[in-house]
Design brief:
This protein has about 100 residues and is an alpha+beta fold. The protein is built from four helices and four strands, in the order H-E-E-E-H-H-H-E. Strands 1-4 form a two-stranded antiparallel ribbon. The protein starts with a helix and ends in a 7-residue tail after the last strand. It binds zinc ion.
């Protein structure tokens, strides 16, 4: 929580806070709710996984995506994410 408090967020252990995607630590194991840009289904991923992958595709769409190599999808996803707010559930201080 210290990290987020320094960024101006308020919240205690167990609280749900809204944090901008840009403010999440790249190594955070926090779960984020994301929407798959291809099938529009919601799914939850760990932020560190998203950071590594740089996309929010679900597993099945990711397979399709990487098989067909549609590069522009990745660029669209990155642009959308700038405006996406995510919900952080503070379940474990040590992981955040
Ligand atoms: Zn999908």
């Amino acid at each position: 929580m210290k990290y987020y408090k320094e960024l101006g967020y308020n919240g205690n252990f167990g609280d749900v806070i809204h944090v901008k995607v840009d403010d999440i630590k790249p190594t955070s194991h926090v779960k984020i709710n994301t929407e798959c840009p291809m099938c529009k289904k919601e799914h939850r991923i760990q932020y560190c996984d998203y950071y590594k992958q740089q996309h929010t595709l679900c597993n099945s769409c990711a397979t399709t995506y990487f098989n067909t190599k549609i590069m522009f999808v990745s660029i669209v996803v990155k642009r959308l994410l700038k405006y996406l707010m995510v919900i952080i559930i503070v379940v474990n201080i040590l992981n955040i």
